[in-house]
Each structure stands twice: as C-alpha cells, then as structure tokens.
Amino acid sequence: MPEGKTSKSDSDREFLTRAGVGELLRVAVLKMVEARSDDPIGFLADHFCHLASAGAAGCGDAEPLAAGAQEQQRLSRALWHLRLVHHSQRSAFSNNVLVAYDLLNLSGRPDGTYASLAGEGLRGGLYTQTLRCLCSEGGVPASTSAPLLRRLHCQDHEVVPYDVFRHSIMTCAIFSDYIRQAQRLYAQVCCPDEGPPSRALGLAVLETLKEALETSRGSETSCYVNASAKIAPYKIAQAIAGAQTRGPGGDMDAKEFENAAAALFITRVKVVS
Fold it and tell me: What's the pTM?
C-alpha cells in the first residue's frame, strides 16, 4: 500500500479510537440484540438520539433548564429505557426499570447517587405521570387505563419506594399487552359486514375470557397476560353458538367490550397502599 494511503488509514483509525466510536457502536449493537428489535434502524436512531439529548443535558455550557423542564426530560429518558425491551425479558426489563427509577429520582439526590439503593424513592406525582405515559404509549386509551391507575395511585407528595414502582411498571406493561389482545379477540367475533356483535355474543366471549383468567396459574398479574391468547378456537365457537340461542339483546361495541375486559384484569391487580 502506498505510504500516503497508509498514513491516512492510520489517521482515520486514530480519529475513531480517540472519538470512542467503536465503543459507541459496540454498546448500541449489544442493546439492539438485547431488545430483539423488529426495526433495527429505528432502534439505533432512537438510541443515538437519546445519547445526544442526554449529552446536551449534561453539557456544562448549556443553559440550565427550569425545574419542570428537567423533570420532563428525565421522564422522557426513563420512558425510553422502559421501551427498550419487552417485559417478558424479565432480567433485562428489571434492569431498565431500575435505571428508569433512578433517572426519575435524580432530583432528590444532589450527589447523583442511586436512590433505589439508599432506601429513598420518587414522588407520587411523577410516578403517576410515568404510569399514565407508559399505558398511553402501549396503545391503551386514557379512559381504559384510568381505573387501573386509580388502583395503583399514590398521592403526589408520597415517596414511592422501588418495589412499588417496579410492581406498577410491570402491571402497566402487562395491561397494555392484555388490552391489545382483548381488542384482537373482539375483532375475531366482529363481522365488518354485519356491524358490532350482539350483546349476548360479547358477554359470552367475556365469560370465556374470565374463565381463562381464573384458570391461569399463580396469583401474579403476569399470569394473566396471555389469557386471551390461551382461549382455544373451539371455546370461541362455543360462545358464538351459545349466544345465538339467547335471543336479542342489542349490540356490544368495541369500547364496551374493551372496558369490560379491562375490568376483569383490574380486579385482580393488587391495590397500592
């Protein structure tokens, strides 16, 4: 190789090493593998955008943010970590929940140490806002998630310990999956050409869903996440056949079905005291 090209190649490698590009790419690829993202380009774009915003926040020359803006920035970063991996990847998800908790509680620790390891916690107002955003980003309408959030509610002035935060975050993540499954279940029995299913059919399908929830093993909320997916096709057929023999009773629209399915889940969620 000509000497000029060798020098340029060495110079390029020195630049990449000095800038830490190799380590940045290595960490990004590892996180993408951990998350098993279906959209690698979008995931990497979000990852580097997150790093850029975090770097700007920590820049000494940057204009100091108001307290409210700092809180929203921490919330955004915490939600980004909570979206990284699915809750079914328990170890990785739990690690991200811990990172999110410490990001949200950073204002309470001037020295920047980890609040979760010091027995402290974040305030109830920001905790509730985090749960509300998590449900919304999971595709759950506010009116559907409101009863769940009331069950997980903490007063704005309360200090929320890590164990409560983790329980609530996991519950909201699972609830979002459950509602999407319930929506798909409704779509299976809804004929577009004939309009909404009858109320009798809707109630029969909900009863089948209730049986699946009750027969799920264990008492943890996570046992209920796949309940609607576990309903065998013949159970749906039985519900349809049974509903046809019950006579008229009006229709059940998607929202009514969704609210009823949500109530079946929410009654099994432990109240945060």
Answer: 0.71
